[in-house]
Each structure stands twice: as structure tokens, then as C-alpha cells.
Please model this.
Amino acid sequence: MGLDVQRGMSTRLIACASVIVIGCSNPPEPDVTSVESAMSRGDLENEGWDCEYVSEGLVLCSLCGVDSEGLYRCLREECENDECVTCGTLRGDPPCVGLVQHAEQFFFFEAEAGSPQGAFLSSSALDASRGIALGLQPIGGGTATHGFTVGMSSTFSVWARVQVPSTSATSVAVRFDGMPTVAWTPTTTSGWAWQRVPHDFALATGGHSLRIQAKGAGALVDRWLVTDNSDFVPYTASLEAEGNAYLPPMQFATTAGTTYAWVPDGLANAGSVLIAAPVRVDGRYYVWGRVNAPSGSADSFFVNGDLSDVNTRIRWDITNTNATQWRWAEVTAHGESVPTAMSISGGNGFVRFDTREDGTKLDRIFVTNDPGFTPVEPVTK
Model:
């Protein structure tokens, strides 16, 4: 099963499979064979493995899919201190045969990357991914096209991250390949919001193109998502640090118009801020922080989501800034090259930042389940 898991690209396919088992009530125990592997966690993820941080230095990775015989199999690696040495194969042998019930596929696109033509205008936009969005014009409309490849035929839905002012009469037309065009009128938003096109699309295995036509004065489109996971709800939100619960000596301060959470130099490497993250459903979310890390002794936090025990919090090291510079950085476990997703509960979840080194400052965060979303300066204040 080929997977494109390169982060930061305009298109990202994630495939994972759920299975049903027939022929018996319980599947057999995994047939595990120990092997030596020279692959690190980063190597595995580049090959399409799904890796989950467990504790300091320990990562569990798995790769599931359909083999040439049509059987569902899983490989598992246990990586300790980035050395992955144990591999297990879950075999789908009779009388329990694993059948693929559904393969979840996700395609994220930057709106401005779709070769825009006509009355589309790529422009700087606050809180848009990479700081750029596609602006819609009131007359003439514009078109943009995104290409992608479906690994397994399925029924797909389309989502867009949009900003639609009340004065905009926005209209969008969505079409796959030579299929009929589907008209959509996004609802007015108070800021950026993910909205779903109210139509499903049956797509076969192979290459496809998504063609967008739209117009609407002042409206912006940031990201597109095509997915066959009907339960998935994309989420991207900017959340300020101030105004949230905190534990001293963590405190809030304001410098040059920016209010941030920090523990002043010399107080203690203690204290926490719990930033409310009202995600819609339980899940794993990526977290970006707007930070100031002025020195090698003031450049890290401990971080965890509310569904994770504080004992499994990760150490987040931040590239140094100067005393006045703020920058966006994605939460990544110490020693890892791949950003770490946080487990957050739907409705009343939060992300907890514990002081590891006093003097490190946190202004605000982005929480998202869009792995390609990338915030940049400037920011809305």
C-alpha cells in the first residue's frame, strides 16, 4: 500500500484500514517474529508507518494494509531511543480472515496551489496557512484545479476552510473530472471556518482532478480537503494563552502589545498554563505555538493533551529566537523530527504547557487536525 506522508506538501494522503473478521469470534494471537531493523522512526514514517509517542524514548509504529492475496495485515515496530528492533506480523490466515471494510483517505490542498485563473487573487491573509489565501472577486469568477490519486474507490466529501463576510454574495461550483457541477453557497463566518460542501462524490481508483469555480467580494479560501471518512470533521483554531487557567509561578505579562504566558527568569522551572481547545470530537491534533525562546536556557516546555496522562508529557525544544523575536514552531517531541500529535477530548479539551525552563514565552497556539496547515507571521493581535 503506497502512502504519501510527506508533511508540508500541498497534497497528503493518509490511508488506514478498519477490518471485520469472519469465521470466528476472536482473531488469533499475532504471529510475531523478532528481526533487526536499521530504520529509525523518521524512516518508518517516510515509508507510511503510523507512529505514536508512548513515553520518553519509546515509540510504537504500525503499518496496515491489504497484501497481494487480499488479506489484511499489520506490521508493528517498537522504537526505543529511535532504534526500531522488533517487528511483528499480524497474519490473516483462516479460519479468521481479515477483510478490508473501508480505507480512509485524506487529500489536503492549499487553495492558492491549484493553478488559479481568472478572477482569483492569491493574497496575504492573517491566520491562513502559510499566510496566503485565495481571494474571490465579485465579477467574472475564477477557477482552480487540484490533481490527486485515489488508492481505493469510495464516496468522498469536500470541505473548505473559508472566510465569508456578511457583505459577500459568495457562490462556489465544485466538479470532479467530467462529472456534473455541484453548486454551493458557503455561510457567513466571523473568521476562518471549515465548511462542508453538501454533496457526496463517488470516485474510482486512479487519478482525478478537482475543479473549483467561485466568486464573491471579500471572501477567502485557505485550504481544501477531499476525504472518504464521513465522520471526520476538520478543525483549525487559533487560541490565545492569556485568559486560560494557570498554575503559579506561571503568569501573564505584556510587552510591546503582546500578552503571553511565562515564568520570569530565576523564579523556578515550574508552573503551567492550560489552554482550552474546544475541538469538536476526541482525537489527535497537531499544535503550533507562537513562542519567544531567547536563549539556550529559555527554550523549552513540557506539553500534553488532556487525554494523555501528565506523566507521558513530551519535552518540546524550540529553536532560539532573539529577545524580541516571535516565531511559530510546531510541537515536536525531543529528539524527534516528526511533529507529535496531542490527544485532546471533544468539547472541553485543553493543551497543557508546563514550564521546563523559565524565561520561555508562549503567546498563542493553533490546534488542528490538518497536518499540512502552517501558520506564519504576521499574526492577528
Remarks:
- Residues 1-38, 85-103 have pLDDT under 50 and may be disordered.
